[in-house]
Amino acid sequence: MSQAIRYVRYGGPEVLTLDDVPLPDPGPGQVRVAVRATGVNGIDWKLRSGFMDRGRRPVGPTGVGVEFAGTIDALGAGVGSGKGVGGWSAGQAVFGRVPSGAAATHVLADTGNLLAMPDWLSFEQAAALPVAVETAWRALRELDVTEGHTLLIHAVAGGVGLVAAQLARARGVRVVGTASQARHDFLRDLGVRPVEYGEDREDREDMAERVRAAAPEGVDAVLDASGRDVLAMSVELAGGPDRVVTIADGRAAEYGVRFSSGVGGSPLEEVFAEVLPLLERGALRVPLERTFPLERTADAHRLSEQGHLLGKIVITVP
Ligand SMILES: NC(=O)c1ccc[n+]([C@@H]2O[C@H](COP(=O)([O-])OP(=O)(O)OC[C@H]3O[C@@H](n4cnc5c(N)ncnc54)[C@H](OP(=O)(O)O)[C@@H]3O)[C@@H](O)[C@H]2O)c1
Q1: Were both Cys, which of 23, 136, 206, 246 would link to 163 (CB 3.0–4.6 Å)?
Q2: Where in the chain is the domain with CATH 3.90.180.10?
Q3: What is the 184 CA–ligand 1 centroid distance (Å)?
Q4: How large is the C-alpha radius of gyration of the chain?
């Protein structure tokens, strides 16, 4: 038997239940992972609340969670013994992505979305990485920022923002980022020039001025990880919509801005070939805002929805 966090109707965090479910069998090209930790992402509560589904109803029980770390406990056909991608084996520590269902004791994962976990990473750390790292890496590639450029990141203290900022810094890019005052010292330590986004409307209207003061050389590109109505200002600051990418504002097209979607995503192998060495030597850090046990996934969603995280929330599985 296995256990999984699921919901049968859209709603607040209270619709989540921890259910007993049959142990899933891996299909061809899949492994079953005994989950030790799973990262929490905005997409989890956006799916659970129905926000992403425009009023349609989930059909039957639906799992949550799109990233995980754990150990392989069963192999599907064509996987392992040197025959499958990477030659996976039972007991091996891995981390990766799934479309849903990672908040569970067991999850089925395609080997194409799986990476071997180095022994210097903890399960909690590894589970926090796939979404934030792949998204940040993809957004930087789409923006094509290179050494000497100045990049503005909205919501730089969140999971994606922090990874994007550190990756950009490692590539010689200057980074300015919006965050609340409490994050500024932490951000300066990472080499980011912090700018307050401002709580009230008047404050927010002055944000462009604060960015110009923090980046007198000008802004070459903008990554919007905030989704809080910053696209018009960003286009103006960067000098054109083609210099702006949002991962969080569904009105991107209204501004001629590219929305970078996680559907498909970039190959984890390629992404982590650059990122794992940075993590290993401490040049990239992903702080954990908080961890929760699996049965408290609803509380993890509540905290995620409040939208003021430094880094990631992770759920641990016994
Ligand atoms: N399209 C994709 O592929 C993709 C992939 C991953 C995530 N996303 C989306 O991208 C967004 C960011 O994801 P995430 O995981 O980085 O989020 P997160 O970890 O929840 O980060 C939220 C951050 O937003 C900041 N924030 C709150 N209000 C703000 C404001 N008015 N202006 C600027 N920053 C503000 C917070 O900073 P303070 O604590 O300083 O307030 C916090 O650090 C979410 O909407 C998520 O759903 C999209």
Answers
A1: 136
A2: 2-129+287-316
A3: 16
A4: 20
pLDDT surpasses 50 at 35: yes
Collapse the DSSP code of 124 into the 3-class scheme (helix H, G, I; strand E, B; otherwise coil) and give the result.
helix
Burial state string for 289-302 with b = 16 or more CB within 10 A and e = fewer than 16 = bbbbebebbbbbbe
pLDDT band at 83 (very low <50, low <70, confident <90, very high): very low
For ligand 1, whether the C-beta of 197 sits within 6 Å is yes
Topology, domain 132-259: Rossmann fold (3.40.50)
Q: Which atom of ligand 1 is nearest to the CA of 289?
A: 19
Q: Read off the pLDDT of residues 179-219 as tens digits, 9 standing for 90 and up.
A: 999 999 999 999 999 999 987 766 667 899 999 999 999 99
Ligand 1 in reach of 154 Cβ (< 6 A): yes
Which CATH superfamily, name and number, covers 2-129+287-316? Answer: Medium-chain alcohol dehydrogenases, catalytic domain (3.90.180.10)
Q: Is the Cβ atom of 248 under 6 angstroms away from ligand 1?
A: yes
Ligand 1 neighbourhood includes 178 CB (under 6 angstroms): yes
- Contact between 315 and 40 under an 8 Å Cβ cutoff? The reply is yes
Residue nearest to atom 26 of ligand 1 (CA): 155
